[in-house]
Design brief:
The structure is a homodimer. By secondary structure, chain A is an alpha/beta fold. In chain A, about 35% of the residues lie in helices and about 15% in strands.
């Protein structure tokens, strides 16, 4: 079938001619996922390669490669990996594909897949955790205990219930946050130019057409969009300045910003200044403009707390990432188009 | 009307003969609550008194006094406060009445009231906050960022969803926690000898008759009972040792203990040893056997975090405490029996 047309379609060639394949896993994978692939007859090679080895074509003897963020699949690496005429699949065990040159993969007829849903639940829970930790001063409380203080009097926080939460973006994670925030008694609003007002309203959230309106109405903001030219520094000094400082019922709870999405959407210098001049009561970030965050002065502010990009860092997310990727590979080798194919 | 019987009933004397009264507020009160009382015609005096002043009878010229935890209403103070024949009401703006000699108040025909419901919501939210902070290592994450590390790899946590949460006690706060934990996808179980299995089941929680069974079945334990002889060190080494280390779906999430109720219910030495030998994956305490907690070695453990008894330390709880207390005072001066009268 189609053997005279070597690149008839990628799926025909790699799928039908290689029902089982040789898979390189370069940044680790959950045991359960490896077992699924081996049970399906595939050969799984768990090995890390240096950039030099990758550029020298170490992946050319594989039909598929699964990476996380450590392995950089640049155009040069992809070219070298295709030299054997085998590689047809790059799997990103996770969400962001910044480390894969998608155009080069497409030019070389390589399917690129990620596992966008596997970590959603973990990010949702971390977002709610950061919301409570920031409004109840949990990290500051723990710091005070460790230093021998009993700073009960200076640790007055505020409840989430009765406050208005603004979600920037209304994708899978934001919807999970909305559901839980509603259970806490928050009123949830959102801004997402790619989602209809009706879709948001069906989930009990009011949609704003203008992101400034979201800031004007919400004491609590949580970021749930991708980083792009449009969203870069979307949370900036001007918008922080128009947030109300009191809840709808008049409680002077101050303003709070949480970002567990992508660094760069929040202007960190603006956040530090807003914490210093009282525009913001607190801020919590899991993601930063530059990672590792290193000596960012924001990290030292008393009313800031953060975590080093651990939204997906749970046992459950890592297991789901693996089993979801195994499913994508199996479907690829069967000649089907994998569900999360990006190109 | 009963004027010939000076102590006919307390309510008759103080209520009918003094429809408006003079109220001392010794540990502060929300402005809104003071306004309610003044609008009702009462005189409110906000002043702090030293123990010496209290023993000398500074409260004798008042019909009612509202305290928090700082003012100690010992038998001696109560006796002195009654010397004017006026004081008929001691209000505790908060829950615990350890600082009031209830027997002495009763002997002197003084009604004692607290505001048990005002802070429930705040404690519920803090409990969920501590549950997420402890399973997602939020305080440790923030500590690592502040020290210049990017400890992403060593901060793998676990989700609440799919885990089994055991609630010790099933009163107002536990029910609020149960509702939210269910929204996170937790399976909630409880032990409370004063609540019927049916009441718990109606709220979606399975009731265990034996507290050991709760520990045997739950990877996550949260304390929501009073401190008594029966509950002292209820969370101890033997019970921590029988907790399962994996969730119902097999996820090896480890065991976690949270206490936002009362110090002394959790054996802190047992918790420290359990953290050290791996029996516990984490622990979070808002309350301690000795407060201020001072140099308790538990506070320094890497997988512990805590807060200095801030369950009710929110703007909302303090406002509700005040307005609830104002309502109790108004009902007392009307000659009604205040709803939360303890004696």
């Amino acid at each position: 079938m189609c053997s005279n047309v070597f690149w008839g379609t990628l799926i025909e060639v790699l799928g039908r001619e290689r029902p089982v394949g040789r898979i390189a896993v370069t940044d680790g994978m959950a045991d359960a996922a490896v077992a699924i692939l081996e049970d399906a007859g595939h050969e799984v090679v768990l090995a890390h390669y240096t950039p030099e080895e990758l550029r020298a074509g170490s992946l050319a003897e594989f039909d598929a490669v699964v990476v996380r963020s450590a392995t950089k699949m640049s155009s040069e690496v992809i070219q070298a990996s295709c030299s054997g005429g085998r590689l047809g699949f790059i799997g990103r065990a996770g969400v962001g594909v910044d480390n894969i040159d998608i155009n080069s993969a497409t030019d070389n007829r390589i399917v690129v897949c990620n596992t966008p849903g596997a970590s959603s639940r973990s990010v949702v829970e971390l977002t709610i955790g950061h919301l409570i930790a920031t409004t109840r001063l949990i990290t500051r409380a723990d710091r005070s205990l460790r230093s021998g203080d009993w700073a009960k009097k200076s640790l007055r926080g505020s409840e989430l219930g009765g406050k208005r939460l603004g979600l920037i973006g209304f994708g899978r994670i934001a919807r999970g946050v909305a559901e839980l925030a509603s259970a806490f008694g928050m009123e949830v609003r959102t801004f997402d130019p790619f989602v209809s007002a009706k879709q948001a309203e069906d989930l009990g959230c009011q949609m704003h057409d203008d992101v400034d309106d979201l800031f004007r109405n919400c004491t609590h903001i949580s970021v749930h969009c991708n980083l792009s030219d449009e969203t870069h520094h979307l949370v900036n000094a001007d918008r922080l300045a128009i947030m109300p400082t009191s809840a709808p019922d008049g409680t002077p709870c101050g303003n709070h910003v949480v970002n567990c999405a992508r660094g760069g959407i929040v202007d960190e210098i603006a956040v530090l200044e807003a914490l210093e001049d009282g525009t913001l009561a607190s801020a919590a970030l899991d993601v930063f403009e530059v990672e590792p965050a290193g000596d960012n002065p924001l990290l030292q502010h008393e009313r800031f707390h953060g975590s080093p990009h651990i939204g997906a860092a749970t046992l459950e997310a890592q297991t789901r990432v693996g089993t979801e990727m195994a499913g994508l590979l199996i479907s690829f080798f069967k000649g089907e188009n994998p569900e999360s194919a990006i190109n």
